[in-house]
Specification:
The protein is α/β, with parallel strands linked by helices. The chain contains 9 helices and 11 strands. The strands form 2 sheets. The chain has a 9-stranded mixed β-sheet with strand order 3-2-1-4-9-6-10-8-7, with helices on both faces. The chain is globular.
Length: 303
């Protein structure tokens, strides 16, 4: 089987990035890794440049943070047609051994599964209805397709794994509504024949703070002594100040609502193209005004 492409997007939180990426690179299995740094200012890029691992195929530093979706789609555009694509959040620490093998075995043994989510802790809050699927030691919860309120059918997760066949049907994360994994689950679960689910038996944790004096990134840190600026800021407080996802969702939720209406009416297909796509056609729907507005929102507020 072709090695999957792992996508990793960083944005400040240097110590957490080191802890997380170290757990990825400690994985003995074969994969290709694409890393995008979203204009971090705390020394994260210096750390990324220091990494030496043959499995790291792409290192990119964006001069402006245009949002998670933009960076994720840049990595997705580097995927070969036969590759699985696995997006790992910046704060994930992977604890299970051979976790990639387990994910790929679920895909191989369940051909109709297109999207798998891995969540820290169980059950996740506000989890939609699911059905358990057990095949020997392979266990996952399959999201049902019978709810009328599509917008609530979302399986939260800090690792998302997509099959090549599903990607051929849904394309990229939507740059037009910019709602990330929520809208991706919507399109995959309700507007394709593929199944989606949350994967069991892969353990991850999401530790949220590191004391500056105990941070593994002190040699890379661009802040002052002990990782703090003169105003007392740390890489975590910088991240929290510049993380505008909640404000974006509040201000532009109407774009997600309009997308749902268009999908339900058939005004648009479940396939989303991207500015990074070389295969876009004139027939594909792409609201450039919406996408540009989204990118400008993050450019003005998250840098």
């Amino acid at each position: 089987m072709v090695a999957p492409l792992l996508s990793y997007v960083t944005f400040n939180r240097l110590g957490q990035t080191i802890r997380s990426l170290s757990s990825v690179l400690e994985t003995p299995e074969n994969f290709e890794l694409a890393i995008v740094d979203n204009n971090s200012t705390d020394g994260t890029w210096k750390y990324i440049q220091s990494l030496k691992d043959r499995r790291i195929k792409f290192k990119t530093r964006l001069p402006v943070n245009l949002g998670q979706v933009y960076a994720s789609n840049l990595n997705l555009s580097k995927r070969r047609d036969d590759q699985y694509f696995i997006a790992v959040d910046q704060d994930v620490v992977i604890e299970s051994k051979n976790w990639l093998t387990y994910i790929l075995r679920v895909f191989k043994n369940t051909p109709n599964i297109g999207l798998l989510s891995i969540h820290a802790g169980f059950p996740p809050r506000n989890m939609p209805p699911t059905n358990p699927v057990i095949k020997n030691d392979l266990v996952y919860l399959e999201l049902t397709k019978n709810r009328s309120d599509y917008s609530q059918d979302y399986m939260p997760g800090s690792i998302l794994a997509l099959s090549p066949d599903l990607i051929s049907k849904i394309g990229f994360w939507s740059e037009e509504n910019n709602f990330g994994s929520r809208e991706l689950f919507l399109r995959a679960n309700h507007f394709t024949a593929f199944k989606t689910g949350i994967l069991m038996n892969v353990n991850i944790s999401i530790p949220q703070q590191i004391v500056c004096g105990k941070c593994p990134g002190q040699s890379f840190c661009r802040l002052s002594k002990n990782g703090e600026t003169k105003t007392g800021e740390t890489c975590f407080t910088i991240y929290e100040k510049l993380n505008q996802n909640k404000l974006f969702r509040e201000q532009y939720h109407w774009k997600f609502d309009e997308t749902v209406k268009d999908l339900q009416s058939g005004a648009r297909s479940p396939y989303c193209t991207s500015l990074f796509s070389c295969n876009s056609t004139a027939e594909e729907t792409y609201n450039l005004d919406w996408a540009t507005e989204n990118f400008q929102f993050y450019a003005s507020k998250a840098n």
